[in-house]
Amino acid sequence: MEIIMSVVIGFLFMAAVYLMLSKSLIRIIIGTGLLSHGAHLLLLTMGGLGGIAPPVVAHGVEVSDYADPLPQALILTAIVISFAVTSFFLVLAYRAYQELGTDNMNLMRGTEDYE
Amino acid sequence: MSNLLLFPILIPLLFAIVLMFFPKRIVMQRAIAIAGSASTLLVGIILLVKVQNDGVQAITLGSWPAPFGISMVSDLFSALLVLSSSLITLFVILYSISTIGVAREQSYYYSAMLFLLVGVNGAFTTGDIFNLFVFVEVLLMSSYMLIAHGGEKQQLRESIKYLLVNIISSALFVAAVAFLYSVTGTLNMADLAVKIPQIESTGVLTLIAVMFLVVFGFKASIFPLYFWLPGSYYAPPTPILALFGALLTKVGVYAIMRTYTLFFLMDTGFTHELLAIISVLTILAGSVGALAYFDVKKIIIYNIIIAVGVILFGVSQLNEAGINGSIFYLIHDMLIKAALFFLVGIIAVIFGTTKLREMGGLIKTYPFLGWTFLVTAFGLAGIPPLSGFPGKLLIIQGGFEGSLFWGSIVILVASLVVLLSVMRIFIYAFWGEPKPTIPLEESTYRKMLIPTVVLVLITVILGVGAEMFMPLIQGAGEVLLNPSIYIDAVLKE
Fold first, then answer.
1. Which residue from A72, B2, B106, B167 puts its CA 20 to 30 A from A60's CA?
2. Per the CB < 8 Å rule, is A89 touching B177?
3. Residue B84 has pLDDT above 50, yes or no
4. Interchain contact, B298 vs A114, CB within 8 Å
C-alpha cells in the first residue's frame, strides 16, 4: 500500500512541476493545487497506513491496530491552509488578468528600467 | 506555567479583528492600530523581564502533557525577537499614517499589519514544528494581502511570483515535516531534541535537516533561493517594504537558528559547514546586487540579503561568540533595516523617484535628514560605537575561533561593500548639484521624520549601550548553546 501511495505522490509532484513550468497562469494554479495534494498524501503515508481502528481507546484492540491520529490532524490543517491560499491565488490571478490584460507569465516579467 | 507568553500573539489578533468592523473610519483605525501594537510592545517588555528573572517560560495548550499538546515556549531569544518585532510594527504603523494614503488605510491595511504581527510573534514563540508552519502561513497570508494591497500593476505582477514561490516552499515544508515525523515520531521541538540523538541512522536525518534548510532558506532568502526577493520587495510602498524587510526574512533566519542549534546536531561537520558556505555565498551575492543598482530601494533590499548571510555565518560556527553575535546582529538588523527603509522612503518622496542618478544636493535643504541618514548608514556598516559593530565583531571572532576563518575575512570585506553601497546613496542624494524636488509640506515631513528619528535613536542606544544589553544577549545565547535548558523547561512541567 505504501508503495502504491509513493508512486501516486511521485506522479502528483511530477504533474505539478510540469504544470508550474508552463506559461499560462491558470495551469500554474492547478499545478500548485496538485503540489499541495501530493504533500498532504505524503504526510498521510509517512505517518504509516497500518492502523484501521479509530484512535479511541477501546477493549480488545491491539495498540498497533489504532490509526495514527496526528497525521490526520496535520493534514486537516494543511488542507485548510492550502484551500485558503489557492482561493486567494485565483482571485489575485483574475485581478491581475484584468489589470495587466494577460495571463502569460512570459509577459509578466516586468520592465527592467534600472541601470 | 504562565499564560503571559501567549499575549503577544492574542493581543494583535484581537485588535486586528476589531479593526475589521469599521474600515472606513480612519481616525479610529489609526488609534486602535497604535493602541494594539503599543500594548503588544508593553506585554513584550513584561514578558522579557519575566523570562529574564524566572528562566524559560513554557506552556502546553489545553493542559496536555508536554510532547502531546502544542507547546509554546518563550526563552530569552524568542522574547527579544517578539519585543523587537512589536516595536518595529508600532513604528511602521506610525510611519504609515502620513505615507500610505487614505485609500489604502480604508481597505483593512492596519488589520493586515496586526495579523502579520500575530504570525511573526507566533512563529517566534512556538515550540512545535508543525505549529511553526501554521504561524508562518498566517504571516504569509497577511504578507500576500499587504504585497498586493492597493492593486497597482507592478504590485499585482510581483505578488503572483511571491505567492508562487511561497506556495512551493510551503509544500516543501509539509513534505519535510512528513519525513521528520516518520523518522522521529514527534514534532515537538524539545521532544525532537531528546529523540534525535537516539536515532542511529543519521544519514536520513541529515537529508531532512537540509530539506528544512531549503524550506527556511526560501523565507530567509539565502543563496541561491533569494532570487524572488529583490523583485517582490521592490513592488509594495515603503512602509510595507520596511515591515517585510525588517520582519519576514528574519522569521526564516530564526527558524534556521532554532532548528540548527536545538536538534539538527547529529552531523554538524556536514550541515553546519554547508550552512557556513551558503551564508558566505549569500553575502557575496548580496554584495554584488548592492553595488550593481543605482536605485535606493534596490540597494537596501540587497543589504537585507547580506545581513542574512552574516547572521547565519555566526550561527554555523556553533560557539559562544558566534551565536551571541548572531543574536545581537539579528536584533540590530531588524531595527536598522526598518530605519533605513523609512529614510529611503522620505528621500524617495522628496525627489518623486527612487533612481539615484536623478537625486542630488539635498543636504542644503534637508540637513537633518542627511545627518540622520549618515548615522544610520554608519550603523548598518558597523562602525563603532554604533549598533552594527558589537554583533559583527562577535560573529567575526566566532569565525576565527572556529574552523572557517576565511568566512570572517569575507564578512570584513563585505562590510566595506555595505559601507560603499549606502555611502553612494548619501553622496548622490545629499551632495552635488541640487536636482528638482517635489515641495513637501512641513507637517507631513515632520510626521514622517519623527518615527524614523526615534527608531534611529533606539539603534544608537543599542550600539552605544551594548554592554548594557549583553546580559540579555548572553542569556539568549546560553539557551541556544545548551539545548538541555530548553528541553527541561518544556518537558519537566
1. A72
2. no
3. yes
4. yes
